[in-house]
Amino acid sequence: MFGGGGGKSPVTWSPSYFPVLSRARLAHCPASPRLVRKSRGPHGVRRRESPVSLSRRSSSSCLRSRLSGILSPPARYTRWTRRSPGVGVTMATVALVLGVSLLFGWAPLGAGATSQPPNIVFLLMDDMGWGDLGVFGEPSRETPHLDQMAAEGMLFPNFYTANPLCSPSRAALLTGRLPIRNGFYTTNGHARNAYTPQEIVGGIPDSEFLLPELLKKAGYVNKIVGKWHLGHRPQFHPLKHGFDEWFGSPNCHFGPYDNKAMPNIPVYRNWEMVGRFYEDFPINHKTGEANLTQIYLKEAVDFIKKQQAHQQPFFLYWAIDATHAPVYASKSFLGTSQRGRYGDAVREIDDSIGKILKLLQDLGIKENTFVFFTSDNGAALISAPKEGGSNGPFLCGKQTTFEGGLREPAIAWWPGHIPAGQVSHQLGNVMDLFTTGLSLAGLKPPSDREIDGIDLLPAIVQGKVIDRPIFYYRGNEMMAVRVGQYKAHYWTWSNSWEEFSQGIDFCPGQNVSGVTTHSQEEHTNLPLLFHLGRDPGERFPIRVSSLEYKDALLRIFPIVEEHKRTLIPGEPQLNVCNPAVMNWAPPGCEKLRRCLTPPESKPKKCFWLH
Ligand SMILES: [Ca+2]
Fold it and tell me: Whose CA is closest to 209, among 457, 474, 444, 475?
C-alpha cells in the first residue's frame, strides 16, 4: 500500500553523503585553540583555562561528534512535558531564568543588577537549504566563515522552521508561536501555503507579542535589517511591533513592476521609505548584480558599533534575502562560485557573516553576544540549481512538509559559553529563538497564551536534549509530526497535478510513490511513518503491521490528539487581498515625491495555489 516501500532494508539514502558530512566535521575540528577560554560569563569571576586543556576538550568534542553521527539523535531523551499556561510554567520559567542567570554571571535587569544581558544577533537566511553549507556536506565547500562559526560553536542538524514559506515562518520566529496560532495562515483552501504579497490586507495582529517588543523591557535596542514580511500596511510596521530601527523592505524583492498595475517594493529606513527596488536599489535580473547584501552588511556593522559605543544591549535581526529568487550578488562576488549565481549569493553572505563575527571579536563583545544562524524555509528546488539551493539528503523543498521544506541549517555561536565544535541533537525550531531570546534577556515568556518555542539554553550551554514534538503545518492543516526520530505524515501533498503538468515541481527528481503525492492524501487513521535516523530522505515508510510502527504510533497519537484538542487557532490574516492596499504611497513618499495613486478598493478572497 505504500508503493512497495514498506518493509525494505533500512539502508536508504545517498551512500556518498554521510562520509562527506563526517569529513566536514573532522576538517573543522579545531586542532588547537586560538583563544584562552574563560570559565564563566563576562561579568563573573574568571578562571583561565590553559590552551592545552581546551585543546583536549575540543578534540574530544569533535571525536564525540564524529562517533555519534551527525544525523542521528541519541536514544536518551528526557520526558517531554507539555507547556501549559499557568503557575507551573511561570515557576518553571522563573527557576530556569534564575538558573541561567547564575550560570552566565548576569542577572535580569531591574533586580538591582548593574551588568548587561547579552546582545542577541539572529542571522536569518531566505530559502537557504540545509545542504548549502560546507559543514553540512556541500561539496563545493564555499562557506568557510559559516563552517568556522560552526567549528567555534554548536551545530544543530535537527533544526526546523514552523512553516515552509517566508511570512508564516518569520511570524513564528518572532512570536514563538505556530502560524495557526498567530494568524499567519489562510482558510481559503485546505492546506494551502499563504504569505504576504503586496495585495494582502492582513499582517501581524496587535495582540501578538513579538520578541523585540518584550526585549525592550530589558533595555534592548532592536534593529531589523532586510525583509520584514509580516504585513506592509501602517499598523503592521515593524517599529510598531518593538523594533527601534529598520532598514529593508516589507515584501520580497520581486519586480520590476510598472508602478501602474503594481508598484515596486519600497525600501524603508525606520518609519519612511527611502526608495524602491529596481529604481533606487537596482537588481539586475540579467547579470544578477545587486549590492544589497553589502548595504545590509553595513547596516549591521554600523548598528553594532553604535550600540557598543552606547553600552546598550542590542537585538539585531539580520533578515537578508539574496538567496531568494531572483538571487543576486554584488559585482565582486558574481561568477566566483562553482555553484552559479546562487552560490555567488551564498559566498557573499558567508563573507558578510565572517565580517560580522570578526567585528564582535574586534569590539571585544563576542563573549557577550549570542549569535544564531538559520534559514526561514528549505531551499526552493523549483528555482534550483541556478536560483535555488540544496536540501542535502532531504526530500523535496520549500512549500512542502517533507524534510526538505522545513529542516534548516542552524548554528549557535557564543564564545566563552558554548564550547567549540559541538553538535546538539536537540530538535529545534525557529520558534525557540523567541523563547531563548527572552531567556537570554532574563525575561519570562507571556503566560496568557500558548508558546510553542522552548528555551534552547539548556541544550546549548548544558548539552541537554529536551524531548519535544515538531509539528509540520501547511496553511490550516497539521500535515506531519516528528516525535524523537519518527515522523508521521497525516497528510501528504507536493502540489497539484495541474501545476505539476505545467512544470512546477517542488520535488524535482525525487518522486516517491505514495509519498510525494499530487493530490492531497489523508493518512490520519494510518499515518505514513518514517524513521529519520535511518531514512532521512523519507523514502521507505515503515510497514503498518510491524511492531515498530505500533510502538511509534502509541507514542505519537496522544501527542497529536492533545495538540489538536487544545489548539485555539488565531484569526486568519492571509484570507483577504485588495489591490488598493499595495505599496502605492508608503510613508515618506511625499518627501520624495514618489507617491502613486492607489486603485479603487476591491477586497476579495486571496487565491493560494499550493
Ligand atoms: Ca523564504
Answer: 444
Would you please indicate which residues are annotated as catalytic (active-site) residues?
166, 229
pLDDT tens digits, one per residue of 78-126:
333 333 333 333 334 334 434 444 444 343 333 334 478 999 999 999 9
Binding-site entries = 126-127, 166, 376-377
Name the phi and psi angles at 423, rounded to 5. Answer: -125, 125
Region 578-601: what's the mean pLDDT? 98
Same structural domain for residues 433 and 493?
Answer: no
Average the pLDDT over 197-201 and give the result. Answer: 98
Instruction: Kindly give the distance from the C-alpha atom of residue 288 to the centroid of ligand 1, in angstroms, as a whole number.
Output: 18
Q: 119: domain CATH number?
A: 3.40.720.10
For residue 609, how far is its CA from the centre of ligand 1 (angstroms)? 17
> What single letter denotes the amino acid at residue 200?
I
Please give the pLDDT value at position 46: 37
Residue pair 109/117 in contact (Cβ under 8 Å)? The answer is yes
Q: Which three cell numbers stand for residue 311?
A: 553600552
Measured between alpha carbons, how far is 329 from 225 in angstroms, rounded to an integer? Answer: 17
Indicate whether 404 and 523 sit together in one domain: no
The grid cell for 137 is 556536506
Q: Are residues 207 and 259 in the same domain?
A: yes
Are residues 457 and 487 part of one domain? no
Distance 61 CA to ligand 1 centre (A): 33
Q: How far is the CA of 336 from the centre of ligand 1 (A)?
A: 24
Ligand 1 mean position to 253 CA, how many Å? 12
Return phi, psi of residue 133, to 5°: -100, 140
Q: Which helix (H) or strand (E) holds 373?
A: strand 369-375
Pick the last residue of a domain from 466, 500, 525: 466
Q: Measure the CA–CA gap between 162 and 406, rounded to whole angstroms.
A: 7
Residues of the binding site for Ca(2+): 126-127, 166, 376-377
**Global confidence as pTM:** 0.84
One domain for residues 411 and 482:
no
Distance (Å, whole) CA 376 – CA 597 = 33
All residues with CB under 5 Å from ion ligand 1: 126-127, 166, 376-377
Distance CA 16, CA 129 (A): 19
| Number of compact structural domains in the chain | 2
What is the per-residue pLDDT across 394-412, written as a single tens digit (0 to 9) for each?
A: 999 999 999 999 999 999 9
Strands (E), 133-292: 154-155, 159-160, 221-226, 245-248, 266-269, 272-276
User: Cell numbers of 330, please?
Assistant: 554584488
